[in-house]
Amino acid sequence: MAKRNYEVLEHPADLKIRAYGHDLKEVFSNMLRGMFETCRPELVDQKPVIRNIQIKAGDLESLLMDFLSRALYLSDINNEIYQSVDFEAMTGRELRGKIKGWKFKKLQTEIKAVTWYDIKIEKKDNLWMATVLFDI
Amino acid sequence: MLIKQNLKKINDYLWEIPRTYRSDMRVPARVYANEKMLDQIFRDKSLEQLVNVTTLPGIQKYALAMPDCHEGYASPIGGVAAIKISGGIISPGMQGYDINCGMKLLKSGLFEKETKPYLEKLASEIQEQVPSGLGRGRRVKLDIAGINEILQKGAEKLVEQGYGVKDDLDNCEAGGRLDWADASVVSTYAKNRGRDQVGTLGSGNHFLEIQKVEEIFNSGVAEAFGLFKDQIVVMIHCGSRGLGHQVCTDNLREFIPLMENKYKIVVPDREFACVPFNSPEGKRALAASAAAANYAWANRQMIAYFVRKAWKSVLGSRDSDLRVLYDVAHNIIKKEKYIVDGREIEVAVHRKGATRAFPPGHSELPAVYRKVGQPVLIPGSMGTASYVLVGTEKGEESFYSVNHGAGRAMSRHAAIRAVRGEEVVRQLKEKGILVKCRSRQGIAEEAPLAYKDINQVVDIVDRAGLAKKVVRLTPLAVIKGE
């Protein structure tokens, strides 16, 4: 496990998150967690919800982008936030698995979209690091 | 790195980054600001992002930034690009995710003193009636057929269903409906997100305010707009909600591989993903964006319906009609005609956090405003003044575009560190302003100190002549989603 799961970086107007992980699965999972924790949800109860997710993309950045966008879509239509991922498959071009979370009553912050602006995912000193700007 | 010395002063309110600054610039970049505000703008990446806008294929004259500009993604917020339709591109990221985020202003016939005893009740009832849409409180759930009708017909559909009157459409940009919208090109993902969000406010800087007309700058135009001193008005700020966000997400996702592989267009940032305007994919994206814009007009129409309901329930026989002054977008792509190099050409004006401001005589204005010009609705930050301006002939130099608000000067994080929500509510209460918001953190994020001074921003627009001040509005009650 990386020392920090994620951190919120300074941005004049929107939400910039940097997530960390020892492998791709961990960095994707931590970005998902950071994204929804920042929305400050008020949960309905502790009953877990699970959604299947499967993404294919041309490159790693697009894979992360599409993964987060799909999670945002599922969150919006089901009133759910997600905390972790159980991966069944994960390559740089494809992922398959289950995202887990809870139903929410309300969110204090709404993420409008995941942006392509300055999206980065890279490995440095055996640690994966991803940076994403969310429009809020 | 861009420094102030790279800029050429055109006049006291306009600065230019010459085309020579970077080799990939197709046109210069221009920013409306005074010297003090320019220093503030230099604190973030707005102007570097504006330089990136100048590289878009087909861009005409210059890329523009309004005085409220701040760092965004792709273009700065407060950015304008007019792109020649023939040979140019369409860039959904140059319009933003909240397609047709915009303003609507409702005018009452009441003076402040007549509503003062009911203000608290009015604010509470409006908060009750208008859900934020972030989870609880979504009131209307439509099926896909119902969504398709809204995507095709916008606010017109809601008026047909009894959620408004014809006058609402007459006083709305494009009559609340873009004819080139096509519901069939909007994804099921987007439609699903839109099913229960018609009539919801959202969060962030979206708000409703009960305001009064505090100062009149131009009595003739104020009269033509039906505005008078101490009049109570209601301002609505919101957009196309999850549906619009998804349409933009979908368009960008489709455009990136097309741009890189099929059309071989090079842009400085994938967020500018674009294709030729007249390509099949470009036409489809325009039709989908227009459908999302229609959804936003329907959303504001439904919110106006809820506000009117609250108004009636609190004021009863003292009720006065809430008539629409105007409804105008500040995130949109529109085809417009301008003279460039002595020839009239059709351009796609991409406005991202910039308000359209048409001059007197413009054919797209409703008859009632054709003589005086378009009402231009500019909200301030929470608890500060808002303005109504009027479009001018001189506005042609900015493709009839002005600012869309005060513009952020401080990050949400910094605002939370600088002030507590409770303190903001107390300070506003001392000024006689009620705040209805369920999230104290949301209030801190939107505190006035996090924004530029709206009075200075609007003064620059006024002095530059892009639009002229008509009235200043001050808030009496602020109602925020979350």
The separation of the N and C termini of chain B measures: 38 Å
Average pLDDT of chain A, rounded to a whole number, is 94
Q: Which class do the helix and strand fractions of chain B yield?
A: alpha+beta
Shape category of chain B:
globular
Rg of chain B is: 21 Å
Which CATH class of chain A? Alpha Beta
Number of domains of chain A: 1
Structural overview:
- The complex is a heterodimer of chains A (136) and B (482).
- Chain A has 136 residues and is an alpha+beta fold.
- Chain A is built from two helices and eight strands.
- The longest helix of chain A has 19 residues, at 60-78.
- Chain B has 482 residues and is an alpha+beta fold.
- Chain B has 16 helices and 19 strands.
- Chain B is 33% helix and 26% strand.
- In chain B, strands 7, 8, 9, 11, 15, 16, 18 and 19 form an eight-stranded mixed beta sheet that branches. A seven-stranded mixed beta sheet of chain B has the order 1-2-3-4-5-13-12, with helices on both faces. A two-stranded antiparallel sheet of chain B has the order 6-10.
- Chain B is globular and about 65 Å long.
- The mean pLDDT of chain B is 95.
- At the A-B interface, helix 2, strand 5 and strand 6 of A face strand 4, helix 8, helix 10 and helix 13 of B.
Properties at a glance:
heterodimer; A: 136 residues; alpha+beta; Archease, Possible Chaperone, Chain: A, domain 1; three-stranded antiparallel sheet; 2 helices; 8 strands; 24% helix; B: 482 residues; eight-stranded mixed sheet; seven-stranded mixed sheet; 19 strands
